[in-house]
Design goal:
Elements (H helix, E strand, L loop, with lengths): L2 E7 L7 H9 L4 E6 L8 H9 L5 E4 L9 H13 L3 E4 L4 E2 L3 H34 L12 H12 L4 H8 L3 H9 L1
Parallel strand pairs: 1-2, 1-3, 3-4
Antiparallel strand pairs: 4-5
Helix pairs in contact: 5-6, 6-7
Amino acid sequence: MALIGYARVSSADQTTALQHDALKAAGCERIFEDTASGARADRPGLAAALAFARAGDVLVVWKLDRLGRSLSHLIVTVADLAGRDVGFRSVTEAIDTTTAGGRLVFHLFGALGQFERDLIRERTHAGLAAAAARGRKGGRKPVISPPLLAKARRMIEQGLTVREAAGRLRVGKSTLYAALRA
């Protein structure tokens, strides 16, 4: 069993020294690092750490937010690790999925995250329904108003191409084509 560390900072002017020290103190033999926003999916250090981990190993992070872009991403990542028989440990939050208690805490986090997503979805749907009942239509306002579309049609009837008409009206050619079709 090997303890594999992963440290991440968001910008080049930050340092992983604190995380590195904590991971070394936790017993990590190898530490992978990234300097990238947590929102980025392409983190070469994380990819290398995940590829390096073998069955029986444990991936260790200083804090949960160093690993996942979001709670759902964190849950998926840890579930993938568990599927490969790789444990997960967070030093700061004292979560260790190699123990029954650690798995319980992690699954509670996952359940709370799913509950939060469901609440957001319900509120969004309720808000959209209420707006629709008041006659509000969602989405972006059309760039080409009915009078502008009528003007474009007259220009095209007088011999201009759609591209020329779009240029004179200062709208995109594809936008004008879409409006003419609708």
